[in-house]
Amino acid sequence: xxxxxxxxxxxxxxxxxxxxxxxxxxxxxxxxxxxxxxxxxxxxxxxxxxxxxxxxxxxxxxxxxxxxxxxxxxxxxxxxxxxxxxxxxxxxxxxxxxxxxxxxxxxxxxxxxxxxxxxxxxxxxxxxxxxxxxxxxxxxxxxxxxxxxxxxxxxxxxxxxxxxxxxxxxxxxxxxxxxxxxxxxxxxxxxxxxxxxxxxxxxxxxxxxxxxxxxxxxxxxxxxxxxxxxxxxxxxxxxxxxxxxxxxxxxxxxxxxxxxxxxxxxxxxxxxxxxxxxxxxxxxxxxxxxxxxxxxxxxxxxxxxxxxxxxxxxxxxxxxxxxxxxxxxxxxxxxxxxxxxxxxxxxxxxxxxxxxxxxxxxxxxxxxxxxxxxxxxxxxxxxxxxxxxxxxxxxxxxxxxxxxxxxxxxxxxxxxxxxxxxxxxxxxxxxxxxxxxxxxxxxxxxxxxxxxxxx
Length: 455
What we know:
Blueprint: E1 3-4, H1 11-16, H2 18-22, E2 44-50, E3 63-69, H3 70-73, E4 78-80, H4 82-85, E5 87-89, E6 96-99, E7 105-109, E8 118-124, E9 130-138, H5 140-143, E10 148-151, E11 158-170, E12 184-197, E13 202-211, H6 215-219, E14 222-232, E15 238-249, E16 254-255, E17 263-270, E18 278-286, E19 297-300, E20 303-307, E21 317-320, H7 334-338, E22 344-350, E23 355-361, E24 376-381, E25 386-389, E26 408-410, E27 413-418, E28 425-431, E29 437-443, E30 450-454
C-alpha cells in the first residue's frame, strides 16, 4: 500500500501519526503537533511541480512545492501529490526556485505579473508547510519583473539577477525622414547586474554597463542578446555570466537566423564591485552558455565547469580555470561521450567528487505531447570526461526536461524527479560513485503538468 504523505514535520511526528500516513485517502490533512518536534534525520527534499497553463508541459499555470524527508524520498511506498496538496509559490508563471545547501530554506523570486521581481524565502517544515521568513524585497526596479536570477555558492548569502537590453546603432548618412540610407554600425548591449543579500533581504549592489564583442564580430552583426547563470570563481573575486549571441544582417539590420555559431562566450566581472566586464571565448566549444532555468556552471576543484547549448557539434562541458580564461585543452563533447548526435544539455549538477548527473536530449529524441524532445539522464565524470546514460530510470516520449531546475546533492547521492508530462512518476536517487539507482517516492501528476526538479 502506498503511504500518502500529506503533512509531515519530523520523524517523531511521522511515527506518532502512522495511522494517518498509512491512509490511502488524499483528503486527510491532520494537524501535526508543533511543541514536541525533533529534528528530522537527513535533510528535506522539496519537489517542485509546474502546472499546465494553456498547453501540456508549458508550466504556465503556476508552481507548487512539497517537501519530504530524504528517507521518505527514497521510499517507493511513499506517495505525494503536490498538485493536490502542495504549497503554491507566488509567481505568475513557472517560479525560479533556489534552495539552501542543506535543504532547510527555499528562496523564490516571482516571475512576471503583479508580483514579478519580489523576493521571498521560506523555512521548509515538511509537506505543504513552508513558513515565510524575513521581509520581502523587490528587485524589479533593477532588473524588471521577469528577472533571471540564481543563488551563488557562497554559503547561501547572495543571489544575483541579470538582464541585457540591446539597441542597433547606425551612422547618420541618411536624412531624418529616410533611414534606409543609414549604415548599420553595431548593436549596443547594456547589461544590468544586481546582487541580493539573501539573509537580510536587501540589495547589496547594482551596476549597469555596456558589454562589447570584438570589433570584427560586431561589424558582422553579432551581439550578446541574453545573459544568465552567474557563478563565482574559486577566489571569490570574479563573477562569470553565461551569454547567448544573436546576429543581424549588417546590410539590412534585420535578424539573421542562418549564421555561423561562434565560440562559446562568458562575461567576466570583478566581484563584488560588478565592474570591468570583459568577454572570454572558448575554442573548445561553440554556442550559448546562459542555460535556461537551471544553474549552468559550477565550481569544482578550483575551476568552473560550464555547459553549453546549441553547439553544432553537440553540447560540451567547458572549463574556466583560476586565471579566468577558458582551458581550451579540456575537450569534453557529449556527442562523443554518449555516442549520439546533437546532444543538448538541458540541466546538470555535479557532486563534490566530480561526478555529475546531466539531463539531456539529442537529435534522435522523439517529440512528445509538449512538442519537445524526449529527455534522458546521464552520469558524467568531469575528470575522465566520460558520460553514460542512466538506464535504470524509465523513459518515454512524453518525458521531457526542458524546464528542469533542481537537483539535490546529498554527499555522493543526487536526487532527481522523473515523470512524463501528465503522468505519474517517481523520485530517483543516483549514487554517483557506484552508479546505483534507487527508485523512491511516487509523484502523483495531473493532466498536462510536469515536475521540474528536487531542491
